[in-house]
Write a structure and sequence with these properties.
6 helices, Death Domain, Fas, 3% strand, mainly alpha, two-stranded antiparallel ribbon
Length: 151
């Protein structure tokens, strides 16, 4: 915890030191008054170079969903949590939600959810992507880095 006092001519800066043997560090910067993240993390390799591609080379949320649909069908385990959130924001209809809920096996739930996303367009896919990152961040990181995790 630290005080963040800065003026108009400079930005707050901090430095983090870790032991040589540290393999991974998860660092968050939270606004204590609002209790939410105020800093977007970056993946940095031990070489000191950013692991995240530059913004112009990253897939948009819609492209991510379209590109990785087959892997999402096989691997997303939080389908109903995501569908519940989308329904509560009126981004999928009650009928779509009921079809997803009734579907078996879990892979069919995800297929039905992807169909619902297609009918909702880019904004709905962007919200799905945000919810997926929130519910299954390791899966999103893995797919974005190009490692499918499947043998």
């Amino acid at each position: 915890m630290f005080e963040c006092n800065f003026g108009p001519n400079y930005h707050p800066t901090f430095e983090v030191f870790v032991n040589v043997n540290t393999e991974e560090v998860k660092l968050s910067l939270l606004d204590r008054t609002e209790g939410k993240d105020v800093w977007a993390r970056r993946r940095i390799l031990l070489t000191g170079k950013d692991a995240d591609p530059p913004a112009h080379k990253r897939l948009t949320e819609s492209e991510f969903v379209n590109t990785h649909g087959d892997k999402l069908i096989q691997r997303v385990s939080s389908v109903m949590a995501i569908a519940d959130s989308l329904k509560s924001k009126n981004m999928i209809t009650g009928e779509m939600w009921r079809n997803i809920k009734a579907a078996e096996p879990p892979q069919q739930k995800m297929r039905d959810l992807l169909d619902a996303l297609d009918s909702g367009g880019a904004a709905v896919k962007a919200e799905f992507y945000r919810l997926l990152k929130e519910n299954e961040p390791h899966l999103v990181d893995e797919l974005e880095s190009g490692h499918s995790g499947l043998q």
